[in-house]
Specification:
Strand content: under 5%
Number of domains: 3
Low-confidence stretches: 1-15, 294-304
Structural class: mainly alpha
Largest sheet: 2 strands, parallel
Order of helices and strands: HHHHHHHHHHHHHHEHHHHE
Number of helices: 18
Distance between the termini: 43 Å
Number of strands: 2
Radius of gyration: 28 Å
Shape: flat
Helix content: 55-70%
Strand order of the largest sheet: 1-2
Length: 419
């Protein structure tokens, strides 16, 4: 095979931007010779078949092989650009010294390392993609080095936040199990803020050396004590002694930033006597804090019964608007209440609404089952949603439900079954 023929054979491999440039650089500067080019062609052909088989595609179908060849080139390109930081000379030398398949494996290991990191900073978050499915998505999207680095940095930050939150909850004796919290899948940021808030203010305000994670009453007690101290002294005292126990300087710096945020943002609201402490507490606890789930804290048997039903309906997903809107959609359509809908169930809801109208009274009845301090926010959530949704729900020209389903997919928790 001539050099020209072999270059043509590499056409579908060197279409990856960085590999293309590195390969041409290597040829033009005679970093690689004819024998190396032949080796690359043969290695790439074998690797393509392996990738097709790895992802469950028949290695005998031409389209599958073409797609696999693009994926292999993308993996090589991703690895080369990351390791050399875009230096063409270094990349050309790596092409010379390493096999094409080993460069491809380098890219694959990068994506696997990305997959191993958490997708967000919530405890108990479920991962729906397998490793292979994740790799496929990355390859189909032609992930660039810039996007990879951003995604890796974001996920590394999530891991760090989860690690810090875990350390803090162990220090103050909090459970990590997701079901122990009022909001399941609590974010690391909320847990970190709650822990630092307790460590800085709780001992001073409670008159004892409490070190457990607060429930709703415990958190309100600290808020109330802070306001009481402000009204008596015109100031709020806190302690920073807990910084000394932190094993990592990064933890200390992060903790200082969080405490500074609490001091500048939360304390002024807590001490503002023109607003009731209950209203301040209702706003801050949902937006910034985590607390333990104890139904017994609800003031009356009636409220307790309603709250138990609400928590059962929501499955502890009160902080996820898409889950709540799915409940509302079901109520408005006269369907069984669910926080996760199949696409077919969402379509059924639309057809029911078009045929029988919106059952808005059922939505209001559902909202009244929520804790009192959340009803105003839930009414607002429903109002904002349905104001925009009506134009889609009652659009008779959308006979195939394409537009309305697209809207609902963006706002509700709808799962489409994999084929």
């Amino acid at each position: 095979m001539t050099l020209t023929e072999e270059n043509q054979s590499l056409t579908h491999y060197d279409n990856a931007p960085f590999f293309d440039r590195a390969f041409k650089y290597a040829v033009q500067h005679k970093v690689i010779d004819q024998a190396k080019i032949t080796e690359i062609v043969n290695d790439a052909a074998t690797g393509t078949i392996q990738i097709a088989e790895h992802f469950g595609a028949s290695s005998h179908l031409r389209l599958n092989l073409e797609e696999s060849s693009r994926w292999m080139a993308s993996l090589v390109s991703l690895y080369l650009e990351e390791v050399t930081n875009g230096d063409l000379e270094q990349a050309a030398l790596m092409i010379k010294d390493k096999s094409f398949r080993s460069l491809s494996r380098g890219g694959s290991q990068m994506l696997k390392a990305l997959y191993a990191l958490p997708e967000d900073n919530h405890f108990g978050s479920q991962r729906y993609d397998t490793e292979n499915e994740f790799l496929k998505k990355c390859l189909k999207s032609n992930m660039t080095v810039a996007k990879y680095r951003q995604a890796f940095n974001d996920r590394a930050q999530f891991k760090s936040e989860l690690g810090f939150a875990s350390w803090l909850v162990k220090k103050i004796g909090a459970p990590i199990k997701r079901d122990d919290y009022v909001y399941s899948d609590p974010s690391a940021n909320h847990i970190i803020r709650t822990c630092i808030f307790c460590l800085a203010y709780r001992i001073k305000k409670s008159g004892g050396n409490k070190s457990s994670f607060p429930d709703e009453n415990g958190l309100l007690e600290i808020f109330t004590s802070i306001r009481r101290e402000w009204s008596l002294l015109g100031d709020v005292t806190s302690t920073k002694k807990f910084f000394e126990d932190m094993p990592d300087e990064a933890f200390r710096q992060y903790a200082k930033l969080v405490l500074a945020s609490i001091e500048s943002e939360d304390i002024p609201q807590i001490t503002n006597q023109s607003i009731s402490i209950e209203k301040v507490f209702a706003e801050l606890k949902r937006a910034k804090y985590a607390y333990l789930h104890h139904i017994a804290n609800v003031v009356s048997d009636h409220d307790k019964k309603l709250s138990e039903e609400w928590f059962t309906l929501t499955g502890g997903k009160e902080e996820h608007d898409d889950h709540i809107l799915s409940l509302f959609l079901c109520a408005a359509a006269g369907l069984p209440l669910k926080t996760l809908l199949l696409a077919s169930e969402a379509k059924k809801a639309v057809l029911n609404i078009r045929e029988h109208g919106l059952l808005e009274k059922e939505v209001i009845k559902l909202i009244k089952k929520a804790p009192h301090d959340e009803t105003e926010q839930l009414l607002s959530l429903w109002g904002e949603f349905i104001e925009d949704a009506k134009s889609y729900l009652f659009d008779e020209s959308d006979e195939n439900l394409v537009q309305v389903m697209s809207y609902l997919m963006d706002h509700c928790n709808i799962h489409k079954l994999k084929k």
